[in-house]
Amino acid sequence: MAPQADGKRGRLIFALDATMSRQPTWDMACQLQADMFAEAGLAGGLDVRLVYFRGLSECRASPWISDTAQLARLMSRIVVEGGHTQIGRVLSETRREAVKDGVRALVFVGDAMEENVDELCAKAGELGLLKVPVFMFQEGHDPHAESAFREIARLSGGAWCRFDPGAAAQLRELLRAVAAYASGGRDALARLAKSTSGAAALLTQMK
9, 70, 112, 132: which has the fewest Cβ within 10 Å? Predict the structure, then answer.
């Protein structure tokens, strides 16, 4: 697969809810991110910016990282802490980076939503106008979170998926598909969709 036409590497923001309820799937997210880099390498490469929130209004973002081992080390040092969700800050950070240097996609993994859904939807709509799809991966079955996550994905032109630790193979396919999109655009995702059900599922949901 050829790199992007403009010669730039793909840029993806990988955002994680690091509040206490997420400990069981944090390690899994650390493992699966390596597959994103591997797939992106086939479509021109990928730079990832890790964003996470936890505790009392703590929301941090890493520099742009192009090495999977470096990102894995960074994630392994993060300890989950109790606190409320800060999805709005994640969406705002993504918009800022999209306007500043360009972002191809946002991946968010979380299990709850404790914010004003209308405000989140407004931010998601702004990302949609900037052509930055949000891929919302939901752990668990909270109906309130699912409703908000689905709407954020729809308004941004992205997709909603279940983050099920019992379906590691499917999750790996889905994250590989997001990475293919971030590094090679719709064409790369369409090519991957011919061979994997995960890519086909994302492509079907996206506008």
Answer: 70
Position of tokens 């059900």? 197
Cα–Cα distance measured from residue 49 to residue 63, given in angstroms and rounded to the nearest whole number? 6
Selected residue with higher pLDDT from 151 and 19? 151
Contact between 49 and 90 (Cβ < 8 Å): no
pTM of the model: 0.90
* Dist. CA 37–CA 5, nearest whole Å: 19
Measure the CA–CA gap between 51 and 134, rounded to whole angstroms.
Answer: 14
- Cβ–Cβ under 8 Å, residues 108 and 137: yes
Cα–Cα distance, 185 to 104 (Å, whole number):
8
> Sign of the CA dihedral 205, 175, 56, 60?
negative
Q: How far apart are CA 158 and CA 103, in angstroms?
A: 13
How many alpha carbons fall within 13 Å on the CB side of residue 25?
Answer: 21
Beta bridge partners of 135: 107, 159
Which DSSP helix (H) or strand (E) runs through 205? helix 197-205
Provide mean pLDDT across the span 86-91: 98
Contact 99, 68 (CB under 8 A): no
CB-CB neighbours of 29 under 10 Å: 22
